Amino acid sequence: MQNPENRSACGAELQEKLWAATVAAPETLYQSTWRDYIFAEIWSRPGLDVKARYLIAIAGVASNGNPSDSLDHYIRGALSNQELSVQELREVAVHSSIYNGWSSGAVIDAAVSRMSQALNLTDDGFKPLAEKPWEPSDRLQRGADEFAQVMTFPGPPPVAPYFEGGILNFVFGEVWHRESLSQRSRRWVTLVGVCDSAATSPIQTHIYGAMASGNTTVEEMQEFVLQYAVHAGWPKASYVQGVLFDMAHKIKNNLTWDGQPKS
């Protein structure tokens, strides 16, 4: 038998810890759902680590146009609890720009600046996108290699500006291999972006790639869907859940993302 007082106490404790702030008692029913459901019953679940939940929440807030104070709460909490560093969060801003648009990256970057200053944290600058000259053909090849490693199947040929200048040249040729943010961390930001897009193929391929690469487990992806629903809403999460069932079945049966037997 569950006790409502215990649930509220658990939620209040987690909310203050994860936001790294004193949180007033709820004054409305809506405010109480943050304490009694989102924190007490979602963030408390053991199937996904806290760092991953922060990344999903930060990307979700930025992608869905939530108030800036919501983003500040998550970023302050991630920094204060040492789940993410300033440098990692700067990378999150860039990665979110790719999958949610540069306006999304802008609000994350601004929140990182606000919260790092408020916490008196040092921002040590950033490693440039490119530090030395390169051959365009080499960068394209590096992008193709990174795509295959991340997605677990070959990328598109450079037959259009979007494929050449976007996917191969920049997204996988420069951003995905940057060492300041792990591939697993980039997965969560990417998954929020592609799931928010409602674009069928990107959702399918990225959910497949996340599991087939070993970056995530099926169980972690199940938790992702629930955490993702907090800021995206239940209808989007419902579709994502269906895709997850399908992609997990294909991986279990040694099939490609589009259902072909692996050679």
From TrEMBL:
Family annotation (InterPro entries): 4CMD/NDH-1_regulator, AhpD-like, CMD-like
Lineage: Bacteria, Pseudomonadati, Pseudomonadota, Gammaproteobacteria, Cellvibrionales
Family annotation (SUPFAM superfamilies): AhpD-like
Protein name: Carboxymuconolactone decarboxylase family protein
Organism: Pseudomaricurvus hydrocarbonicus
Ranges for domain Carboxymuconolactone decarboxylase-like: 30-103
Xref: PANTHER family: 4-CARBOXYMUCONOLACTONE DECARBOXYLASE FAMILY PROTEIN (PTHR33570), CARBOXYMUCONOLACTONE DECARBOXYLASE-LIKE DOMAIN-CONTAINING PROTEIN (PTHR33570:SF2)
GO molecular function: peroxiredoxin activity
Extent of the signal sequence: none
UniProt superkingdom: Bacteria
